[in-house]
Amino acid sequence: DFDACGWQEMREMPFEEHVDRETSRPFDLENGPLLRVRLYAGVTNTATLLLCAPFMSADLTSLRILTGEFESVYAALQAARVPNLPSLRGSYFDYVQQSRLQSRTRAARPA
């Protein structure tokens, strides 16, 4: 989280160029991070949250869940409430195990 309002570079370069630059930066898939988050605070009391992830580490469903949770937390904080997110239904390990089982089941079905 940072406020880029005072950055000389931000004033000299259009915001879209900053976004293009950030989204074009390669990821180090071995060492990470595999998610980059940037919050750009505007001069008119606006902000833009930019999430960048390589396609192999985040699917559309995961990104929708993540952005939905960001929206819920933001709305709660704006209303001076404690954010209340749903509990996790399982671990990533559980998800992988379930996916493997489903793949084996599909492969075992006759064509």
How does this model look, in words?
The chain has helices at residues 8-12, 15-24, 60-78, 92-108; strands spanning 36-41, 47-52. By secondary structure, the chain is mainly alpha-helical.
SSE arrangement:
Blueprint: H1 8-12, H2 15-24, E1 36-41, E2 47-52, H3 60-78, H4 92-108
Antiparallel strand pairs: 1-2
Report the C-alpha radius of gyration, rounded.
Answer: 19 Å
Biggest β-sheet: strands ordered side by side in the sheet: 1-2
Count of β-strands: 2
Number of helices: 4
Indicate the mean pLDDT.
83
Pattern of helices and strands: HHEEHH
Low-pLDDT parts are none
Net shape: flat
Strand content: 5-15%
Structural class: mainly alpha
Alpha carbon gap, first and last residue: 52 Å
User: How can the largest sheet be summarized?
Assistant: 2 strands, antiparallel
Core attributes:
111 residues; mainly alpha; two-stranded antiparallel ribbon; 46% helix; 11% strand
Q: Outline of this structure?
A:
This protein is mainly alpha-helical.
